[in-house]
């Protein structure tokens, strides 16, 4: 049994997709990040970085419970646990490279583009330009790579594809104000629709829908989501 600590955002979505693809037995533990539940001591004992997703594998190595945090680490852990969605041994260098490309580039720059377009104070033109252009550059790298291939690493569907799907799914928010956000990147658009049409994606999208997560962005939410912007009073 996997305890899956979840909020409906791109990084947890990747793990939800893996769990639905693999058929692993899991239970969802909602973590409402706009209410600040990620900062609760009980959750910080699972992820000291106070971020979702995280998992507790009650049947970890040697039969002992194991915690894993960070979406890329979780995908690798679960893929190795099940022996699925890792491609072939020859694919491993490409798989790891693209996973890190998403974890250190596509994801963070997309996230910052969203932050400065939706959450930051007004008059952030430089930051918006910086992060949105970098997100576009990462889209272009993936688009060029996918010009003559169906999947990111090797010839089969892997955790690299799941990881990319989680962020490309939010292209409309990253590319705010565009009617067809993936139009400039046709190979990436085709790739996204290939992954998005999988039956497990619909099940992954349903994860957590039975929980009423907070949706308003009031001061409580801003302090919970961006605590470094609100240092404690001296």
Automatic annotation (TrEMBL):
Say yes or no: keyword RNA-binding present.
no
Classification via InterPro entries: Glutathione-S-Trfase_C-like, Glutathione-S-Trfase_C_sf, Glutathione_S-Trfase, Glutathione_S-Trfase_N, Thioredoxin-like_sf
Q: Which residues form the GST C-terminal domain?
A: 88-225
GO MF annotation, one: transferase activity
Q: Does the keyword Transferase apply?
A: yes
Q: Which CDD domains match?
A: GST_N_Ure2p_like
Q: Which UniProt keywords apply?
A: Transferase
**Protein name according to UniProt:** Glutathione S-transferase family protein
Give the originating organism.
Gluconacetobacter aggeris
């Amino acid at each position: 049994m996997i305890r899956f600590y979840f909020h409906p955002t791109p990084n947890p979505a990747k793990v939800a997709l893996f769990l639905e693809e693999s058929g692993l037995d899991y239970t969802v533990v909602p973590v409402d990040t706009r209410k600040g539940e990620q900062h609760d001591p009980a959750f910080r004992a699972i992820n000291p970085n106070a971020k979702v997703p995280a998992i507790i594998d009650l049947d970890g190595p040697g039969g002992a419970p194991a915690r894993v945090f960070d979406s890329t680490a979780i995908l690798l852990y679960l893929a190795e646990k099940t022996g699925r969605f890792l491609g072939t041994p020859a694919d491993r260098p490409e798989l790891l490279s693209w996973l890190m490309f998403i974890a250190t580039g596509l994801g963070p720059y997309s996230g910052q583009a969203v932050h400065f377009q939706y959450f930051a104070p007004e008059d952030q033109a430089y930051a918006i330009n910086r992060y949105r252009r970098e997100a576009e550059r990462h889209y272009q790298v993936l688009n060029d790579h996918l010009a003559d291939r169906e999947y990111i690493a090797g010839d089969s569907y892997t955790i690299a594809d799941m990881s990319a799907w989680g962020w490309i799914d939010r292209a409309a928010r990253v590319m705010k104000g565009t009617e067809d956000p993936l139009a400039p990147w046709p190979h990436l658009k085709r790739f996204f629709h290939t992954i998005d049409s999988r039956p497990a994606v619909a099940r992954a999208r349903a994860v957590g829908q039975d929980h009423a997560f907070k949706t308003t962005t009031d001061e409580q939410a801003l302090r919970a989501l961006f605590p470094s912007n609100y240092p404690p009073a001296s």
